[in-house]
Amino acid sequence: MPLRSGHGLFRRSLEPNTEIRAGEHPRPRLSATLVSGRGTVSWPLAWTGFTLERTRALGTNAWEAAPGVTNNAVSLDEAEGPWYFRLWR
Questions:
Q1: From start to end of 1-89, where are the E strands?
Q2: Looking at the whole model, is its pTM more than 0.85?
Q3: Residue 21 DSSP SS3
Q4: Residues 6 or more apart whose Cβ sits within 8 Å of residue 40
Q5: φ and ψ at residue 22, rounded to 5 degrees
């Protein structure tokens, strides 16, 4: 589906509900789930070339690559947290 205009915003069909402004690069959304004490952080497989980074405190530059990422997902034990995540390109 081509990009459509609507009040200066564009929607891209690669990922539902992804809004981008003219001149911006689209970004994937992270998803997080917690099942039986195991957390999973992931993003759609169509989005390649990103590194999942994590930190324990926001407002610092102490971001590091999250270990164990496979197929755009990482799984962790709930007791390992708290972590904050971001995708970096």
A1: 4-6, 9-11, 19-21, 31-35, 38-42, 51-55, 64-65, 73-77, 84-88
A2: no
A3: strand
A4: 31, 32, 33, 34, 73, 74, 75, 76
A5: -55, 130
Q: Are 33 and 47 in contact (CB under 8 A)?
A: no
- Taking 3-state DSSP, the helix, strand and coil percentages for the chain, each rounded to the nearest 5, stand at 5, 40, 55
At 37, which amino acid appears? G
User: Distance between the two ends of the chain, CA-based, in angstroms?
Assistant: 25
Tell me how crowded residue 17 is: count the other CB atoms within 10 A of its CB.
7
Query: Rounded to whole angstroms, what are the CA distances from 54 to 4, 6, 14, 26?
Result: 34, 34, 25, 21
Please write the tens of the pLDDT for every residue from 17-39: 556 567 667 789 999 999 998 99
